[in-house]
Amino acid sequence: MLGTATRVGANPDVLGTPIIDASDLEIGDGFRVWSAHRQTLISGPGRIRIGNNCFVNAGAIIYSELAVTLGNDVALANEVYVMDTPSHGIEGRNPEAKPVVIGDGTWVGARAIVLPGVTIGRRVAVGAGAVVTKDVPDDVLVAGNPARVVRPLTYPPLCRRAWHDIYCPCPGSLLGPPLESP
Ligand SMILES: CC(C)(COP(=O)(O)OP(=O)(O)OC[C@H]1O[C@@H](n2cnc3c(N)ncnc32)[C@H](O)[C@@H]1OP(=O)(O)O)[C@@H](O)C(=O)NCCC(=O)NCCS
C-alpha cells in the first residue's frame, strides 16, 4: 500500500488506496496515511523524506521534483498541497524547483498550500487554507494568504506536536508520560 517507498519504518497504517509513486521516497516509523473521499498522492521524481510518526490525511498531495522533507510528528490535514516545483514558469522563465522542509511537530491545516522553497519550523500550526509563501519560524501560528504569523505558540514541557490529540506524546495523554513526570 505504500507503493514505491524504498524504506518504510515500523507499524505503518494505511486507510484506503493512496497513490504513492514517488521515485525516491523514505518513510519513518508509525506513518499514518488516509485516502478516503479524496485520494492521497505522494509523487514525483524528487527526494521525499518523511520522518517518524507523521500523519497524511485524505486528499493531501506531496509532489517533489527536488526535495521535500517532513520531520518527525508532522501532520498534513485534508487536501493539503505541498510542492517543491511550480511546474510551469511565467513570463517565459523556466520553472525552478526549490526544496521544502516542514519541521518536527508541525501541523498543516486543511487545504493549506506550501509553496516551493519554504522552510516551516518546528511545532508550527498552519491555519486551514493558508498559502505559505515564505519561511516560518518555530512555535508560531500562521494563517492566511499569504500566510503571516498570527501569534507565538507556547507548549507544556515535553510537548512535541502542534496537533494535540489523545495520541499525542504529551504528558498526560494516552501515549505520553504521566503528568507528574518532569
Ligand atoms: C489555526 C487554528 C488552529 C487557530 O485556532 P485558534 O488558536 O483558536 O485561533 P483564533 O481563533 O484565536 O484565531 C486567531 C486569529 O487568527 C485568525 N485565524 C485563525 N485561523 C485562521 C485561518 N485558518 N485562516 C485565516 N485566519 C485565521 C482568526 O480570525 C483570528 O484573527 P483576529 O485575531 O484578527 O480575530 C484554527 O483556526 C485552524 O485553522 N485550524 C485548522 C483545523 C484543520 O484544518 N483541521 C484539519 C483536521 S485534520
What would you say this structure looks like, in words?
This protein has 182 residues and is mainly β. It has a single domain, classed as UDP N-Acetylglucosamine Acyltransferase, domain 1 (3 Solenoid). It is built from no helices and 20 strands. The strands form three sheets. Strands 2-5-8-11-14-17-19-20 form an eight-stranded mixed sheet, with no helix packed on it. It starts with 6 loop residues before the first strand and ends in a 30-residue tail after the last strand. The model has no long low-confidence stretch (mean pLDDT 94). Coenzyme A binds next to strand 19.
Please describe the topology of this protein.
Blueprint: E1 7-8, E2 13-16, E3 19-20, E4 24-27, E5 32-35, E6 41-43, E7 47-50, E8 55-56, E9 61-63, E10 67-70, E11 75-76, E12 81-83, E13 100-102, E14 107-108, E15 113-114, E16 119-120, E17 125-126, E18 131-132, E19 140-143, E20 148-152
Parallel strand pairs: 1-4, 2-5, 3-6, 4-7, 5-8, 6-9, 7-10, 8-11, 9-12, 10-13, 11-14, 12-15, 13-16, 14-17, 15-18, 17-19
Antiparallel strand pairs: 19-20
What is the CATH topology descriptor?
Answer: UDP N-Acetylglucosamine Acyltransferase, domain 1
Following the backbone from N to C, one meets helices and strands in this order, namely: EEEEEEEEEEEEEEEEEEEE
The overall pLDDT average reads 94
What proportion strand? Answer: 25-35%
Give the terminus-to-terminus CA distance. 39 Å
Radius of gyration: 16 Å
Quickly describe the structure.
This protein has no helices and 20 strands. It has 182 residues and is mainly β.
